[in-house]
Design goal:
The chain is α/β, with parallel strands linked by helices and 356 residues long. 33% of the residues lie in helices and 15% in strands. The chain binds flavin mononucleotide.
Length: 356
């Protein structure tokens, strides 16, 4: 059969070998922001497993932008050098390598999930968090409100990280503007109570994200894609709506973004109707903003993933938890969908295990 999932996707001058991509996933396994063998093996296994794009976890642009002290970063030379090893391995497997650039805002200074779910105190290895307004995420410590000067410095910090990402050899930069982290906190009226040009109207709330996108686009190669992950809805009255997110996508297109990675939620505690493909409709609506989109969220079955693309709801799919269960998901999906001849090859070392 003709499978869209395993058809290459070209964005600008860059071509992905297929349309099934590894979603960003924190591993809480770094020391001082430096990626290590864990990140190499974790991401490398999924590149070998056939993913077309392998995205790193949320990688902080400054130390205080880490979700946990064990997050990776890309604010110094050592981190950049170590990332390059993982990137080179991903490339050797024929996959594209992407880095998710992040600042955790008011949701920073927390432990790895297996160590608890409350903020880490400043005298216990934590730090003071920052946000558009001094409004805490429920259950976390209160952040400090950012000054106007501090806000104006943020796009430059993301651009510095993008420059380092280029040095490390990444093919894709993704700005993390979802899940209640700093850029999402600005976008959402539920966390942004500012009365200056960074708060209030949609245009004002989107200003930091747009300025950041422009600043990154300036330094990021014209030949390499720039993605933005958003939470298309806060699933809460008074918060971001999917319709508004389609307008955000249109602004992002003008600012130089190439694809919107559509997630939802995370900025407040909300009731989310979780089920198979539960964010796909949001992706389809955001796509009306004029940019290609990727869909994510309980996409677990090859036929389900293929159908999302066949229906024109998204241009690519991302898998997170299912890819932890099965690093070789794309190779298996290719077989289950009857893709012949296969376009994403098994590693030669594993060929004797390939389905005939
Ligand atoms: C262990 C784990 C870590 C995650 N870390 C990140 C992250 O760093 N950045 C991000 O945007 N999303 C993160 N997510 C969310 C996933 O990228 C994805 O959007 C979500 O899990 C839904 O997809 P799934 O149903 O395929 O797991 C994480 C999810 C998991 C399970």
């Amino acid at each position: 059969m003709t499978s869209l999932l395993f058809e290459p996707l070209t964005i600008g001058n860059f071509t992905f070998r297929n349309r099934v991509w590894l979603a960003p996933m924190c591993q809480y396994s770094a020391v001082d922001g430096v990626p290590n063998e864990w990140h190499l093996v974790h991401l490398g296994a999924r590149a070998s497993g056939g993913f077309g794009l392998v995205l790193t976890e949320a990688t902080a642009v400054v130390p205080e932008g880490r979700i946990s002290p064990a997050d990776t970063g890309i604010w110094n030379d050592e981190q950049t050098r170590e990332w390059k090893k993982t990137v080179d391995f991903i490339h050797s497997r024929g996959a594209a390598a992407g880095v998710q650039l992040a600042h955790a805002g008011r949701k920073a200074s927390t432990p790895a999930p297996w160590d608890g779910h409350e903020s880490i105190a400043n005298d216990d290895g934590g730090w003071t968090t920052v946000a558009p307004s001094a409004v805490p995420f429920p259950g976390y410590k209160a952040p400090r409100e950012l000054s106007l000067d501090e806000i104006k410095a943020l796009p430059g910090l993301f651009a510095d990280a993008a420059r380092r990402s280029l040095e490390a050899g990444f093919d894709v930069v993704e700005l993390h503007a979802a899940h209640g982290y700093l850029l999402h906190e600005f976008l959402s009226p539920l966390s942004n109570e500012r009365t200056d040009e960074y708060g209030g109207s949609h245009e004002n709330r989107a200003r930091l994200l747009i300025e950041t996108t422009r600043a990154v686009r300036e330094v990021w190669s014209k030949d390499k894609p720039l993605f933005v992950r958003i939470s298309a809805t806060d699933w809460t009255e008074g918060g971001i709506t999917v319709k508004e997110s389609a307008r955000t996508a249109a602004l992002l297109k003008d600012a130089g973004a190439d694809l919107i990675d559509v997630s939802t939620g995370g900025n407040v505690k909300a009731k989310i109707p979780v089920g198979p493909g539960y964010q796909v409709e949001a992706a389809a609506t955001v796509r009306t903003g004029g940019l290609p989109v990727s869909a994510v969220g309980l996409i677990t079955e090859p036929r389900q993933a293929e159908q999302i693309l066949q229906d024109g709801k998204a241009d690519a799919v991302m898998l997170a938890r299912e890819a932890l269960r099965d690093p070789n998901w794309p190779l298996r999906a290719q077989h289950e969908l009857g893709v012949d001849p296969v376009s994403t090859p098994w590693p030669l070392q594993y060929e004797r295990a390939a389905w005939q």
